[in-house]
Each structure stands twice: as structure tokens, then as C-alpha cells.
Amino acid sequence: MSLANKTVAVVDYGMGNLRSVSQAVLHAAREMGYQAVVTSRAEEVRAAERIVLPGQGAMPDCMRELRDSGLLAAVLEAAATKPLFGVCVGMQMLLDRSDEGPTDGLGLIPGEVLKFELAGRLQADGSRFKVPQMGWNRVWQTGAHPMWAGVGEGSYYYFVHSFYARTSDARHSVGEADYGSRFTAAVARDNIFATQFHPEKSASQGLALYRNFLTWKP
Fold it and tell me: What is the pLDDT of residues 170-201, one digit of tens each?
């Protein structure tokens, strides 16, 4: 398959929410004049101009599958030079380590991934906090970034997660949400942007992020 320069690759290493991510990326790509591919081939990841790294399930499983798929080196090469968008566990994998396992991450953004500790705590309406957090939550933009262009402050996004990221440098946390306390919902560094929430399940405000990703010039 010949890949045009304007290509965005969704990395298929066996652990991503590929159907909904790929549908959202394909929709945005058609609008923006991009070709989108869902690929498990390292050469296609290397050839693409932009990379989307999804992830779901347990982080140790995601890291193992990324290594075993033969795609780890291609993803690291892409992360060094190309716009990369991490989603959900695909965001958590970018950090140094996770308490889940525990397991080491890719070390691309300094920080760690911690488990929500909310046992016995009550929400404002008197109900107990549940882990995983599952549902819609507001995201506050704590750092200026081109990926937020046209996205309203405090927009609602869809979350499903039991673990959350904590960056070592506050500058790398560009979005926060509240669940028991403030936590990092979006990270960014150089050519990397990633979200704990699922843009592909977040209606128009989620699609706006994928559109912004295709025009972002880090």
C-alpha cells in the first residue's frame, strides 16, 4: 500500500479501542484531506505523517502487546519526530511508570500513573465514588495548547478509567478534571498530546480534537 504524505496511522497492537477510534479519525481525516490507516505494520507507522496511539484494558497488557507486536521501536521513533496523539491507556503508557502491575511506561513524559483511592468517600449528591470512573466529566484547560483551539473551557468528555496520570512537571499537564480531587486529564510535551478521556466517544468536542490534531504543527 502506498502511503501519501498526508497520512495518519492508528496503531493496532492488539489493545486499542480500534473501532470507535478509527471511525472518529477516519471521519476527521476525510474532512481534512487526510488518508487514515489502521495498521499493525511498523513500516506504515514509520511512513505516516501523524500517529494515534490508542489503548484500553490493563497497562501491563498494553505494554507487553506493544513490545510483542514489533511496533514499539516504530512508535518511539514516531514520538521523537512526529505529531502523536495518545488516548486513554495510550496516554498512561507515555509516562515513566504505573502502579498498575506495577509496570514501566515509555518514559516520554516524566510522571507516574496512580490508582484512584476513593473507598468510602461520597460525592456532592451523597452517592459513593465508584472506581472505575465511568461517564461524562468536565475538562478544564490548565495549559494553553493548539489542540484546544475552538474547544470550550469546561467541555464534557467521556472517561472510563481506574488509574490516572500525575506528571512530574506541571507544565506537561494541560487539562484537568475532578473525581474526588483534581487529576490530569490531558498531557502535552513538544510533539506529543494525549488524553485520559476518549475523544472518539465525546461527540463534537471530541471530534474537534481529532481535527485539531490533523492541522497541529508542533
Answer: 999 999 999 999 999 999 999 999 999 999 99
Q: What is the pLDDT of residues 126-165, one digit of tens each?
A: 999 999 999 999 999 999 999 999 999 999 999 999 999 9
Report how far residue 26's alpha carbon sits from residue 64's, in angstroms, rounded to the nearest whole number.
27
Alpha helices in the chain (DSSP H): 18-32, 42-47, 59-68, 72-81, 89-92, 203-215
Active site residue 88: yes
For residue 107, give every residue at least 6 positions away whose Cβ sits within 8 Å of its Cβ, in sequence order, or none: 95, 96
C-alpha span between 40 and 42 (Å, rounded): 7
Catalytic residue among 112, 161, 172, 198: 198
Catalytic residue check, 27? no
Q: Is 138 helix (H, G, I), strand (E, B) or coil?
A: strand
Active-site residue, from 88, 112, 172, 176 = 88
Cis amide linkage into residue 54, ω under 30° from 0? no
- Asked about 198 being catalytic, the answer comes back as yes
Phi, psi of 189 (to 5 degrees): -160, 120
